[in-house]
Amino acid sequence: MRRGSRTYFEFAPLIQYAVELSGVQGRAPRLCHIGTAGGDQRSVNAQYSEAGEAAGITVTHLNLFPMPSTADLAGLLLGQDVIWVGGGSVANLLALWRLHGLDKALFQAWEAGVVLSGVSAGSICWHVGGTTDSFGPDLRAVTNGLGLVPYSAGVHYDSEEQRRPLYQQLVGSGVLPAGYATDDGVGVVYRGTDFAEAVSEIPGKGAYQVTAEAGQAREERIEPRLLPSVG
Hints:
Number of strands: 15
Number of domains: 2
Distance between the termini: 12 Å
Helix content: 25-40%
CATH class of the largest domain: Alpha Beta
CATH topology of the largest domain: Rossmann fold
Number of helices: 7
Order of helices and strands: EEHEHEHEHHEHEEEHEEEEEE
Radius of gyration: 17 Å
Strand order of the largest sheet: 8-7-9-10-13-14
Largest sheet: 6 strands, mixed
């Protein structure tokens, strides 16, 4: 999301590219926004709906507060082209998803070919784990992600000073498996469980493959493909 010209927010290139990956043609794409990590704020839902209307994308929200917004979680998700998960507390997100069985419904959607995507907590969740401020300002490891891809995720790599050294420490020591880190504005694309490419909506940003060698982290920069601007 970014500031819009006629709306408060508009969909930035990374969301637009997630929609493009779905391959929808001949109708409005359907995107389900899941805001669990931020507490299902209705104001945020409204901003996503407004941005979707401006982009010609039909936006649905799956809320878990104060109760699940549908009795058929899998049915709702299987009717979408893209699922986009917002940022916030990845620890709370994972706990609530498992409590309500949303983790299983998301797995069904993934198997059916729905594009799974998101930012920050909404990126870490698909991986084995990553670094998080869910527990306080001193970052900690989260290791109980959904694990749909067998890697770890290092988010906010260039904007929060604790992220890079802690992520490297966790991968080097084996607490987290090897994985991919991203500067803000950069996304990693998987096809199945295989890395396909890195893309960016901001020039000069980077992605990084981080692996372990003899108890130390090894980082290799991946130059992302710059996405075209939208709007």
